[in-house]
Amino acid sequence: MENPRCFANRFVDYKGALLVGQGVEKAVPTVKDLIDKIIRNVPLGSTECDGGLYDGPAGVAYMLYHVSESALFSEHKDSYLKIAKQIIDVSVVYVDGEKDKNMRAAFLLGGAGIYAVAAMVYKALGLADFVKPLTKFRNLWEVCSPINFLECGSDELFVGRAGYLCGALVLKQKLGIEILSMDQIQEICRAIIESGKQYARRKRKPFPLMYSYYGTEYLGAAHGLSSVLQMLLCYQEVLSDGERDLVWQSVDFLMNQEQNCNWPAELGAVIERENELVHWCHGAPGVAYLFAKAYLINKKPQYLDTCIRSGELVWRKGLLKKGPGICHGVAGSAYVFLLLYRLTGNSKYIYRAQRQVETYGTQSICPRSCGAADTAGFAEFLFTEEFKAGSCSVSSVYSLFEGLSGTVCFLVDFLQPDQSEFPLFSVFV
């Protein structure tokens, strides 16, 4: 019976050698052509800025910034940054006029993410003006520090406190400066923990921290427990010993919710194998990043083993039919293999990522770490007729999380896997 959510993976798995290809010099023009297509089609009007970094034009600006940071595209750096500035300038004006201050504090869907990307783009261009969006970002900490600042759920990644902390982490990584003071970070983290404790007590949960978003107790990266805990781990140095214990107990609780290498979208659900979600947003491809962070902090093998099992599931079911993007598409699945490569150094994961890329159509592109050698994989699948004919149409086809801008980020990271990271969701800071 055909799986409604993913294509069958017919690729032969890694046998100790990568696929023979044509090298990086053939891949860069292919990626550049894809970028040119996105630039020609991205909306630049002030009425078309909805969606934030997730599926708005601001996400395209981030993609151009990301590409400009790669030495492989150094000759296009200035032009990409100038276009990124044009796009992000319009988005900044748009969110400056946002009347809902709570939405200005949203990272992936609102102002905080746009201000963060504006600061990165301006700084990369050598503009002193980068301080202005940075200050706007910093001032938002007061908006999201009250425990219940959002009725829908104040702690998740897209609009809540976890997202705001994630933005501060990205800025620290990209700009080399701590955006928030230790006291500000501590206050936000403690609000997250207190919010989770209150909810868990109110709902009589047998574990210390839990959250909901629009009434649903999500577990995955998009709106759920895993990304909230991941951000708390990223800032665990500001927590008390007791608070850290609560976080680690919750990490282990979530690890125990695994069902056949995957996690249900919401707490208490039973995974139906024929309707299984294997997405970054819901399922193992996103939850894996929490356990990667946990492993990087304390080196306990069970966390790495959990990541590896997630990767095995993604190899079987990660050729998704919901498009090329990173949220619930093929590129988001393929990023798991780049994560596992960075964690283990095992070339098997480069091979699997190759399969996904050629799936997408760049045929025979090879990461730097392969010498000039090989390619194929999930990247390979992105470019096949099977994928083009069988995948769902995407409304935000050029966007970062649902469309081709996320694909570009993946292809660039695939070419330099030692530096690869899921966009705006780092575990290596």
UniProtKB/TrEMBL annotation:
<keyword id="KW-0479">Metal-binding</keyword>
<keyword id="KW-0862">Zinc</keyword>
<keyword id="KW-0812">Transmembrane</keyword>
<feature type="binding site">
    <location>
        <position position="328"/>
    </location>
    <ligand>
        <name>Zn(2+)</name>
    </ligand>
</feature>
<dbReference type="InterPro" id="IPR012341">
    <property type="entry name" value="6hp_glycosidase-like_sf"/>
</dbReference>
<feature type="transmembrane region" description="Helical">
    <location>
        <begin position="105"/>
        <end position="125"/>
    </location>
</feature>
<protein>
    <recommendedName>
        <fullName>LanC-like protein 3</fullName>
    </recommendedName>
</protein>
<feature type="binding site">
    <location>
        <position position="281"/>
    </location>
    <ligand>
        <name>Zn(2+)</name>
    </ligand>
</feature>
<dbReference type="InterPro" id="IPR007822">
    <property type="entry name" value="LANC-like"/>
</dbReference>
<feature type="binding site">
    <location>
        <position position="327"/>
    </location>
    <ligand>
        <name>Zn(2+)</name>
    </ligand>
</feature>
<dbReference type="Pfam" id="PF05147">
    <property type="entry name" value="LANC_like"/>
</dbReference>
<dbReference type="InterPro" id="IPR020464">
    <property type="entry name" value="LanC-like_prot_euk"/>
</dbReference>
<keyword id="KW-0472">Membrane</keyword>
<comment type="similarity">
    <text>Belongs to the LanC-like protein family.</text>
</comment>
<keyword id="KW-1133">Transmembrane helix</keyword>
